[in-house]
Design goal:
It is built from 7 helices and 10 strands. By secondary structure, it is an alpha+beta fold.
């Protein structure tokens, strides 16, 4: 096999930023690193790309290998290539972020590597440049959620509008106008109202809704924000 003369090889890694929502808080799935350097410290799920493996397959394999999760929403974020980001060897990392409904996937989640859901508001110190990856992924998610209803990937099949409001408020770290949020959300005509109410949490209860998946998947990029830009980015 021919090689480029005078060029140095480097490792290519995948790091998975896995966001989850439990109905109240936005969380991140972390593990305690199992090898040196930084063994035992908090880390994203990561691994190396195999020689004959494309990036998408590598990300799916690493995610399933370390967490047991599969068939979840994943999107490539960015490459991180600081020469000193890994003290052992020159390593380029491709970061991906995933969106998971915590309750839907709790039975699928493997305990082999002891992953833990940690509130995004209370993250511990992470190894290498992993905190930089998380912060960038959150900003990307904020931007994308302002343009189309991506956050439904974090919700159960049946949910209430207050739960969805909680999710948006957790992502943007701010209180949103409830009445305006409800009006914009329902005007998008993405939701199918159910006959039943969630009784816990309020005297009157809140109706459950389901996402109209046909409209959602056929027009995922066509829907405008549920929220005015001044509410999100002010």
């Amino acid at each position: 096999m021919k090689k480029y003369a005078g060029q140095s090889a480097m490792l290519v890694a995948i790091d998975c930023i896995i966001f989850g929502f439990d109905g109240d808080e936005l969380k991140l799935l972390l593990i305690q690193r199992g090898l040196e350097p930084e063994k035992g410290k908090w880390s994203l799920m990561g691994g190396f790309v195999k020689p004959k493996e494309d990036l998408e397959k590598a990300a799916a394999r690493i995610l399933k290998q370390l967490t047991g999760l599969e068939d979840v929403y994943m999107e490539q974020l960015q490459a991180f290539g600081d020469p000193d980001r890994d003290p052992v060897e020159r390593t380029l990392s491709i970061a991906w972020f995933a969106l998971v409904d915590i309750h839907k996937y709790e039975k699928q989640l493997s305990d082999d590597h002891h992953p833990e859901w940690v509130p995004v508001k209370k993250l511990p110190k992470l190894v290498f440049d992993h905190r930089k990856m998380v912060d960038l992924a959150k900003k990307r998610l904020q931007y994308k959620a302002a343009l189309h209803p991506l956050l439904f990937e974090l919700l159960p099949d049946r949910f209430t509008i207050p739960q969805l409001l909680n999710l948006y408020q957790a992502l943007y770290d701010k209180k949103l106008d409830k009445r305006n949020f409800n009006r914009k959300l329902l005007s998008a005509k993405l939701l199918i109202k159910q006959k039943y109410k969630k009784k816990e949490g309020s005297r009157r209860g809140a109706f459950y809704y389901k996402l109209d998946k046909r409209k959602y998947y056929s027009n995922i990029d066509a829907f405008m924000s549920f929220l005015p830009a001044r509410e999100i980015f002010s």
